[in-house]
Amino acid sequence: MSLLATLFEPGVGVATADPSRPAASLYPAEEAFVSHAVEQRRREFAIGRDCARMAMRTLGIPAQAVPAGGDRAPIWPDGIVGSISHCDGLCGAVVARRAHGFRSLGLDIEPASPLDDDLMDAICTGQEIDWLEALPACQSGLMARAIFSAKETVYKTQYPLSGQLIDFHAVSIRLDMAAARFAATFHVNASPFRVDEQLQGRFAIDAGFIVTAMVLKGVQAKTARQEFTTWA
Question: Of 34, 82, 137, 153, which one has the greatest count of Cβ atoms within 10 A?
């Protein structure tokens, strides 16, 4: 079982690939997005789309184009939600069907290396920094990278629903290292998400990578606002 598969529930198709391998040809709608990109960017984009189509096939979904919008976010086929991530050495994608209750997915893959000290203030809240400073020195940099990854995953999960750009301080992350889970608390309103609303996710550190994951599923609205549940 792949590392990604351990982080996502049944009903989510997952796929990974080595980003250094040759990629399949892009669909015309995808090619238009990277027609003027440098070779490395083209390769990353193409391998990501390969992974997306492999993940679709695990759910019996025919291979389809996944172009990108003006905001650079993937445009998933009707009825499908998904997320794509890559770093040096690993690319991955996850997809699921809206008809099965999935509203949004988040995935981020990072190298399992400490976060640069000069990025700490830009990414971490004061509370997160206090928590990191209480850790043994051999752990704090790696956990800072995990916090960064979790925030990337939260962003990818909320953006398809809110359409809002939020920065790193818009949410705070609480890592539960023993359970390999994290909680993300909003500090801004990004409708349908509200200040103090909390989402749950999972993470894994293995084989030289940090992977963070989030699944958002819809439930019946009890008020005028759509309510959501997260699986973790």
Answer: 153
128-133 long-range contacts (CB < 8 A, ≥24 apart) are 128/172, 128/173, 131/174
* Local structure of 147: helix, strand or coil: helix
Among residues 59, 130, 55, 44, which one has the least CA distance to residue 90? 44
Neighbours of 169 (CB within 10 A): 16
* pTM of this prediction exceeds 0.70: yes
User: Is 156 within 8 Å of 109 (Cβ atoms)?
Assistant: no
Residues 6+ apart with CB under 8 A from 148: 110, 115, 119, 123, 168
What span, in angstroms and rounded, lies between the C-alpha atoms of 69 and 143?
Answer: 32
Q: Burial, 66: exposed, middle or buried (Cβ in 10 Å; 0-12, 13-18, 19+)?
A: buried
CB 113 within 8 A of CB 149: no
Integer Cα distance of 66 and 68 in angstroms: 7
CA angle 167, 155, 122 (to 5 degrees): 30
Is residue 65 within 8 A of residue 106, CB to CB? The reply is no
